[in-house]
Automatic annotation (TrEMBL):
InterPro entries: START-like_dom_sf. The lineage of its organism: Bacteria, Pseudomonadati, Bacteroidota, Sphingobacteriia, Sphingobacteriales. It comes from the Bacteria. This is SRPBCC family protein. It comes from Paradesertivirga mongoliensis.
Amino acid sequence: MSIFESKVELNRPVSEVYNFLADFNNHQQLMPDNISNWSSTTDEARFSVQNMAKLALKISNRIENQTIIIVPAEQVPFNMDMRWIVADLGNNTTEAILTISAELNMMMKMMASGPLKKLVEHQTQALEKVL
């Protein structure tokens, strides 16, 4: 299992950060420029990754003000999930951690590790800018 993780501290209450992340309609603002054809509902998103593939993701579980778990909504080349964990640090400050866990064989690991690491870092940095 390959794990990619990035975290950020936000000067926002945990409920505000959680509510933003719990709605997939907001996630387009967190995506890098190579994402196109975005369509989403509160629970699911579909998009294309430039020169790669079309993806469909869904939120499979929400624990209020704590965790949002995102999994593929359709068949994918490898098993993976994304987890946003938010924690109240007090004084209206929240820590948000994005973790992607992926079952990658050696070849997929060589091709996908860089882009997945960049994705988690981009999303946490974008979250900081948006909120």
